[in-house]
UniProtKB/TrEMBL annotation, chain A:
Plastid recorded as keyword: no
Protein's name according to its UniProt entry: Trafficking protein particle complex subunit 2-like protein
Organism of derivation: Camelus dromedarius (Dromedary)
GO biological process, one term: endoplasmic reticulum to Golgi vesicle-mediated transport
Database matches in InterPro entries: Longin-like_dom_sf, Sedlin, TRAPPC2L
Gene3D superfamilies hit by this protein: 3.30.450.70
Endoplasmic reticulum keyword on record: yes
Primary location: cytoplasm
UniProtKB/TrEMBL annotation, chain B:
Domain EH residues, every copy: 238-322
One GO term describing the cellular component: cytoplasm
Gene Ontology BP terms: endocytosis; endosomal transport
Location of region: Disordered: 58-188, 331-386, 423-444, 459-679
Record has Metal-binding as a keyword: yes
Biased composition (Polar residues): 68-79, 98-112, 360-386, 459-496, 516-526, 565-576
Coiled-coil boundaries: 708-739
Protein name (database record): RalBP1-associated Eps domain-containing protein 1
Length: 148, 749
């Protein structure tokens, strides 16, 4: 289950970022921000036109890191995914609970991408605005960790 | 909102809702619903407030209130702007109201409400219609406006009013209970709360006033309600209006309205973009960025509803679903007070009493829920027909089904491949044709995979690598194998599925020959002349014994060729005319050898040469020009022969390549051969002397012959072993290449 989901625009500003509200959200924001560098690095390393979805998926961006154990008792892994329009999805998952397989992460990103496309299709959505679609929100909620 | 309104209108101060307070409250409600800040000044300043949208509870109450309003409105000079339906349209309303009041319960009033109540929506086409529940005047002065005040507001007021005669005997006749029940149940925000109850008797039907700025369709929507429409139902008039609007944008009713056009259209309604965005999300059912007629009607309906104060539902009500757009009971409207006044009968209107209730377009969530149980009108039933029509549209209703339309892409290539494979292939064909076709609509990833696999297959057919273009038999099999392998994700030994024919070869002739060779090879593995021309076509296997040489020789080189994908042209020649080619090669070789070595020993040369050649092929294979090991192993004896062998040997590079690889594989086996090489060397070493001794006498010749035979047998054995190793190596190579292809990212997207 994801702990934090972020959609970053091409210019590296967040279009949508949402975390499980338990922990300090700032830390999640920070993690997402730091992973942007890794994403960019991977993008540049990939070379030319990557059209394949497999290439869109960047995988584990950074080895798991745990800050102070007290704050982050779990191992947090960040995964990245970039679309052809250089919109990046970063997801922080809590790997302690379930050993999320790669395929599951991919499917989560696929769902994210699909919902994002739906948001884009909305003529009332101006690219660059924050994403306020309720459908998108509900989809992300379904992916987030169920925190009691 | 209610508390604020109450506060603003001073009711709290007074402790009750006086008429003026009520009017103010209503006006504030309208203000609030229009999205304007809730302030007292706004009432007066904003003249163009749309009539507040109240879920009409039953007309009774409304009528009651209306009557009261109307009567009051006349007297409310200060509230001139406030027509009984709070946001005054001004004169018109007032007039209408007064008219209504004047003619309480006159059916004539029915007509009135419609137009005057038109909420001042600006842009004609886009302006959502404010559907107003229209109290049928029968109730008399029901201001057509949906007087649904805030539930709580209404209730007390209603009761108060009921007591008061507002001059409606009729009303009094209607027991408050029914409406109140409704109200109570709807107690809600103003928009959602009251339901206009229609006097059954007096109210013929609740007409929903649709404010239509546009001159096109009728402003009034009179809907003879069939009774229990759920709030989100679209009345006929509404639908007609929507359709007309649709036509203005898109003449073809079966066509689409592109997103941009729809955006402009709905922006005119002056709803906040966020809400329009949400409406779009709800109404664009198939998520295609365009609106069909049904989707457009749904969107329009939602816009109207919103305009009238209804909240937007979280999910699209059933009645608005593209296939059910007309006359469907909305499953659940959720929270939105549908602005679009559905002419559905105000849900709760006492069923018994409101058979003729004018359709109150405003339906409230509660109503909806309750209306679910209501009967469906004949219209609804007729809509079932439309249902069927639209079903097809909705077929891919599930927006999550990413693949609504089968991906057309791969069909062609796969078909082509299929054909190719079918043409060529034997066994694995069946898997190929079906699989790509079957997976057409499946996962994209799967398709990609198949694409890649198909492409791989095609590549095989075309490219050099694995393309078993050489032999028809081998190609399809190879392809099929590859495809099959890929499909099954098994990069395991391709040879499992590979047909006997050797790996695909660049030239078809090769394949054929190779297949032939393979057969021969298998049949003739042992006791054959070395025919070591594993990689060298021209290296005609030595022909120690003319009788045997050609055969085995042919085999060997051919086999080698077959095994090696890099067969050069020479192998082709050889396979095609094994016997002949060999002979010619032999002769050439012999000639060359003879020339190189001893001319006078030409006779023996052919004999020797074959031997040498036998060794040479093997050696040449090994002697990747750089591989001394191999040389030692094989040719060993006759370096000169080796060199000679190499020269006439055609595509050294290819064999070399092959050999390199096989060398690597065979390196471990080098040791095994060292002994043999030693023997060979010994044997071969003697050979050079043979030619010289040939000329001596027959004994020498015979001895040499014997020796050659021995050498031949040894070399033959060695050759067979090496060929076996070569085959293994090739198999591994094939499997590795297949795996590589699989792992390589698909780049066909």
């Amino acid at each position: 289950m994801a702990v934090c989901v972020a959609v970053i625009a091409k210019e590296n500003y967040p279009l949508y970022i949402r975390s499980v509200p338990t922990e300090s959200e700032l830390k999640f924001h920070y993690m997402v921000h730091t992973s942007l560098d890794v994403v960019d690095e991977k993008i540049s390393a990939m070379g030319k036109a990557l059209v394949d979805q497999r290439e869109l998926y960047l995988g584990l961006l950074y080895p798991t890191e745990d800050y102070k154990v007290s704050v982050f008792p779990n191992q947090l892994c960040r995964y990245g995914y970039v679309t052809n329009s250089k919109v990046k999805f970063v997801m922080v998952v809590d790997s302690s609970n379930t050993a999320l397989r790669d395929n599951e992460i991919r499917s989560m990103f696929r769902k994210l991408h699909n919902s994002y496309t739906d948001v884009m299709c909305n003529p009332f959505y101006n690219p660059g605005d924050r994403i306020q679609s309720r459908a998108f929100d509900s989809m992300v909620t379904s992916m987030m960790v169920q925190v009691c | 909102m209610n508390p604020n309104i109450m506060q603003l209108c001073g009711a709290k101060r007074l402790g009750y809702f006086g008429r003026s307070q009520f009017y103010i409250a209503l006006k504030l409600v309208a203000v609030a619903q229009s999205g304007f800040p809730l302030r007292v000044e706004s009432i007066n300043t904003v003249k163009d407030l749309p009539l507040p949208r109240f879920v009409a509870s039953k007309n009774e109450q409304e009528s009651r209130h209306a009557a009261s309003y109307s009567s009051d409105s006349e007297n409310q000079g200060s509230y001139s702007g406030v027509i009984p339906p709070p946001p005054g349209r001004g004169q018109v309303k007032k007039g209408s109201i007064s008219h209504d009041t004047v003619q309480p319960r006159t059916s004539a009033d029915q007509q009135e409400p419609a137009s005057p109540v038109v909420s001042p929506q600006q842009s004609p086409p886009a302006s959502p219609h404010t559907w107003r529940k229209h109290n049928r005047h029968p109730s008399g002065g029901n201001s057509e406006r949906p007087l649904a005040g805030p539930g709580p507001f209404w209730a007390p007021f209603g009761e108060a009013q009921s007591g008061s005669s507002a001059g409606d005997a009729v009303w009094s006749g209607h027991s408050p209970p029914p409406p109140q029940e409704n109200w109570v149940s709807f107690a809600d925000t103003p928009p959602t709360s009251t339901l206009l109850t229609m006097h059954p008797a007096s109210v013929q039907d609740q007409t929903t006033v649709r404010t239509v700025a546009s001159a096109t369709t009728a402003n009034e929507i009179r809907r003879q309600s069939s009774s229990y429409d759920d709030p989100w139902k679209i009345t006929d008039e509404q639908r007609q209006y929507y359709v007309n609007q649709f036509k203005t944008i898109q003449p073809d009713l079966n066509g689409f309205i592109p997103g941009s056009a729809a955006k402009e259209f709905f922006t005119k309604s002056k709803l906040p973009i966020l809400e329009l965005s949400h409406i779009w999300e709800l109404s664009d059912f198939d998520k295609d960025g365009a609106l069909t007629l049904d989707e457009f009607c749904a969107a329009f309906h939602l816009v109207v509803a919103r305009k009238n104060g209804y909240d937007l539902p979280e999910k699209l009500p059933e009645s608005l679903m593209p296939k059910l757009i007309d006359l469907e009971d909305t499953a659940d409207v959720g929270d939105q007070p549908g602005e679009v006044g559905y002419s559905g009968s105000p849900a709760e209107a006492p069923p018994s009493k409101s058979p003729s209730m004018p359709s109150l377009n405003q339906t409230w969530p509660e109503l909806n829920q309750s209306s679910e149980q209501w009967e469906t009108f004949s219209e609804r039933s007729s809509s079932s027909q439309t249902l069927t029509q639209f079903d097809s549209n909705i077929a891919p209703a599930d927006p999550d089904t990413a693949i609504v339309h089968p991906v057309p892409i791969r069909m062609t290539p796969s078909k082509i491949h299929m054909q190719e494979m079918e043409l060529k292939r034997t066994g694995s064909d069946h898997t190929n044709p079906t699989s790509p076709l079957l997976v057409k609509t499946s996962d994209l990833s799967e398709e990609n995979k198949i694409n890649s696999s198909v492409k791989f297959a095609s590549g095989n057919t075309v490219a050099d690598g694995y393309s078993s273009s050489d032999s028809f038999t081998s190609d399809p099999e190879q392809i099929g194998n590859n495809v099959t392998r890929q499909r099954s994700h098994s990069g395991t030994s391709p040879d499992n599925t590979a047909p006997p024919p050797p790996p695909p070869r660049p030239q078809p002739s090769h394949s054929r020959s190779s297949s032939l060779d393979m057969n021969r090879t298998f049949s003739v593995t042992t006791g054959q002349q070395q025919a070591g021309v594993v990689a060298q076509p021209p290296a005609v296997p030595p022909r120690p014994q003319p009788s045997q040489a050609p055969g085995p020789v042919v085999h060997r080189p051919v086999d080698a060729d077959g095994l090696i994908t890099h067969t050069s042209t020479s192998p082709q020649q050889i396979p095609e005319q094994p016997n002949f080619a060999d002979f010619s090669q032999f002769e050439v070789f012999a000639a060359s050898n003879v020339n190189e070595e001893q001319d006078d020993e030409a006779e023996k040369h052919p004999e020797v040469l074959p031997v040498e050649k036998a060794s040479d092929p093997a050696s040449s294979l090994r002697v990747a020009k750089t591989d001394s090991k191999m040389e030692e192993k094989t040719a060993a004896s006759a370096p000169a022969n080796v060199s000679k062998g190499t020269t006439p040997l055609a595509p050294p590079p290819k064999p070399v390549r092959r050999r390199l690889k096989s060398e690597d594989e065979l390196r471990p086996e080098v040791d095994e051969h060292t002994q043999k090489t030693g023997v060979l060397a010994a044997v071969l070493a003697s050979q050079p002397s043979i030619p010289r001794s040939v000329g001596k006498d027959k004994k020498a010749i015979q001895a040499s012959i014997r020796r050659n035979k021995e050498t031949n047998t040894v070399l033959a054995r060695l050759n067979s072993e090496l060929q076996q190793q070569l085959k293994d190596v090739l198999e591994e190579r094939i499997s590795l290449e297949v795996q590589l292809e699989q792992l390589r990212p698909f780049s066909h997207l």
